[in-house]
Amino acid sequence: MSHRRHLFYGAGLALLSTAPALAQEAAAPVAPTSAEASLRLMWVMLGVLAVVLLLFIVLLVGLLAFLKPVLRKLYDQPAVHNSWSGRVLGLLVGDARLMQGEVRDELLDHDYDGIHEFDNDLPPWWKYGFAFTTVFAVCYLTYYHVLKTGQLQGAEYATEMQQAALLVATTSDDPNQLTTYTALTAPAELSSGKGLFTTNCAPCHGASAEGKVGPNLTDEYWLHGGEVNHIYRTIKFGVNGKGMVAWKGKLSGKQILQVSSYILSLQGSKPANAKPPQGEKEAPAKTLAVR
Amino acid sequence: MQADSLVPAAAPRTPLIPNAPERRVETFYYDNKIVRDFGIATVIWGIIGMLVGVLAAFQLARPELNMGTAFTTFGRIRPLHTNAVIFAFVGNGIFTGIYYSLQRLCKTRMYSDFLGRLHFWGWQLIIVSAVATLPFGFTTSKEYAELEWPIDIAITLVWVVFGWNMFGTIARRRERHLYVGIWFYIATFLTVAVLHIVNSMELPVNFLKSYSMYAGVQDALVQWWYGHNAVAFFLTTPYLGLMYYFLPKAAGRPVYSYRLSIIHFWSLIFIYIWAGPHHLLYTALPDWAQSLGVAFSVMLIAPSWGGMINGLLTLRGAWDKVREEPVLKFMVVAVTAYGMATFEGPMLSLKNVNAIAHFTDWIVAHVHVGALGWNGFLTFAMLYWLWPRLYRTTLYSKKLATTHFWLGTLGILFYAIPMYWSGFTQGLMWKQFNSEGMLQYPNFLETVLQLVPMYYLRGIGGLLYVSGVFLLMYNLYQTAKAGSLLVNEKAQAPALLPAELVEEHQTGHWHRWLERRPFQLAVGATVAILIGGAVEMIPTFLVKSNVPTIASVKPYRPLELQGRDLYIREGCSNCHTQMVRPFRSETERYGEYSKAGEYVYDRPFLWGSKRTGPDLQRVGGKYPSSWHYNHMLDPTSMSPGSIMPTYSWLFDQKIDYSILPSKIKVLRNLGTPYPAGFDQVAVDDARQQAQGIVTELKKEDIEVMPDKEIVALIAYLQRLGTDIKVKPEQAASVTATTR
Predict the structure, then answer these.
(1) Are B547 and B218 in contact (CB under 8 A)?
(2) Given B260, B584, B625, which is nearest A122 (Cβ)?
(3) Which residues in chain A touch residue B308, judged by CB atoms under 8 angstroms apart?
(4) Would the ipTM clear 0.85, i.e. be above it?
(5) How far apart are CA B604 and CA B215, in angstroms?
(6) In terms of CB atoms within 10 Å, which of A38, B26, B341, B696 comes out highest?
(7) What CATH topology corresponds to A187-289?
(8) What residue segments make up the domains of chain B, in order of their start?
(9) What are the tens digits of pLDDT across the range B33-56?
């Protein structure tokens, strides 16, 4: 018995000793007001909560183990045994019959080609499980279709899109409104642009932008404008019906600018197997003129 | 455990009325040959079906295994695999078990030897006809119901032969009461008949082409009512019946609980039928039908587990035998796998879980736990138990059977774990957004390539599993060689007394009344299985608001229709869905989510159930036609690393315009609003549209004849999902960019 008592006190002590520790810990990261800090605080609090809960469970188990002989005696009294609270007590002291039912193993007088049948009770866990799922099903249908409290898929989608709109900074999404970027020239930016081009654009425009399914991007001829902001627009919104995919949502604004700039850097590179020119000729000077 | 609960040597007999007439003991013979024949067919088709499955598995890891021919591409091989393992392997397994157990449970020979042979050869012929049509592209594309209409009729006829033989046997029984196994057999027969007939309603165009009588959302609902309940009433209820016979037999123990079998039988067949819509969560199916699917799926846990616990608890007192007896080992894993799969199913039916799992390999893992574990292992157990009895000898090698058990178990693990892993991975990758609010993996292919190592492992799992079946075949062959088949097994039983003379028939459990009356039991079961389907289908067909029409959605043009039929022929829907779900992650990736009204001319619906490739509902107009041309010829040219097979024959074969007018006529009869006489001008219209595509391709330096199949397929792909695509915002973008 004594080791149980030790466990009992030990757990209590541990619980007490964590209290000040958690106060210190919690106090520290309050100062920075950034979202990150409050997120960290949340995790710390959750962690503390988990530890406290764990301690409670340990305590409870210890307490039960400690009190089990007494509880068992209480449970065995007929008045307690047959009441609802008695059944809870029975579960606590580990009366297996409450879970698996009375197993009488009495044979019925059935004989099917030598197969016999018992008529044991339905296991209570199964019976109550069935009842629980039935209640769940009724509540589920009531929640969504009688009370109409729950969001069905259309409403759920609308909510998801609203939340996304709050989180994602909205940039101008009007295709008619031209952006006013300047082509990037830093080697690091162009090399990022090259990487993006290889994975996303090369299948249609060729590895050297010589043109395959899509047009050649290295000549002076442009279908939808050869100025960096025109290219930016073409990439972002695509060209409906002509096969140019809209990349907004797949590439970020920065990435689109990097690719656009990389494409412009290929002007006049004259790759092998170049596709014949398509669209209107635009003087290279024009690229610089429009700013 | 009470040792005294072992079966008494002689069970207490029914007390008779004192002056009841003498019960004459009759001698009769069980037909063992038909059981043996079905058993052999089970093993042979099992091996074939599983080998085809292994091929399909490795095709996903190494696309060159599609072998560059039309007949061996994944889209045609996969339906062959599913049909072979479900209807050939499990189907023959069901008949093996029923023909053995039904005779003994009814204490009579099967009603007719001739009907038995007719059933056997008819069923094998149907399977052969599946092998002779599916790889050649003759398919309805409706999953597990791919066979074309003449074969559908043949299935119906053979099924009637089976039912006739079964009910004839029951009518001649010498055992008054029907055992729980037979209840399950009866429910199986009736429900499969109803499912098959309702789902196969189609109007023929010619001998091997037909169009579904249902369109779009309604077709989807009927198909998944069928698909789900094919699992329920072809893979579950007959096998529960077999379990109730072979498990207590092999364990030598009484069934745990009679009343549990009553309640789980009735609740199972009643509830199962409602759960079909859980295959269509977050689709264009009306919300109320989806919710019914969820609610009833959750309620299905207990009825399913009723079967599992009645099986496992029957083994109480026999667990020491499990250690030595491979038959029992197989049974324990089978029943446990059944329990796992039937718990997982309801969990997958919860919408939030489904949102991650649907269209991924998680579902593939789920069905294979059921198929490999439950159906496969129970079949093996049954065969190992039966063979020595049929051949009056002992099993050739217990050790080999145990080796088979471990190979099979390992195979299941190697199959299931990588598929769960792959399902989680892809489901989460599809949904991942980065901090800028954009898809983390906008390139679909990236999520596929992540899974290739898992596809290898899964293939290895399949190989392990099927190698075990070879051991089974060898073991059974040697067993048969060592013994001799007991063709007609002698048995004796007293003739039935008239019911009113037996005292027990006036008292006892209320359900005993029903067990004496096969007709009433069958009627009861039919009512139970009809309710759920009727409640879900009738409103979806009759209430207009369930499928709101969209004015801009028009019927397919003839060339697009031809292309659509090619899409069906090539089995594209085995890997591509046409259902954008209302999630931000999907509308960002594919475009506007799918609406019920978009599918009103889709016969059959082509929503698909698995995304090995991306969704295609909004692919129309996304790429230029030249992209599709190059992509179909060599997918890796447009999507480096793609695991899609090449479709070179589409570039050689000519479009078959000969049946186009009949197609238009059939569709008009089904309600597609083509103008009168349109069938006469359909071919001209198709040629005109083809010319347009050829001209467009020519601009990109691609020379193609307008009568090649690829042109029709491109026409269909470019049409997909475009009817509702024209919106003011996009129109503005077009004018702006084209100046």
Answers:
(1) yes
(2) B260
(3) none
(4) yes
(5) 6
(6) B341
(7) Cytochrome Bc1 Complex; Chain D, domain 2 (1.10.760)
(8) 27-498+507-537, 558-738
(9) 999 999 999 999 999 999 999 999
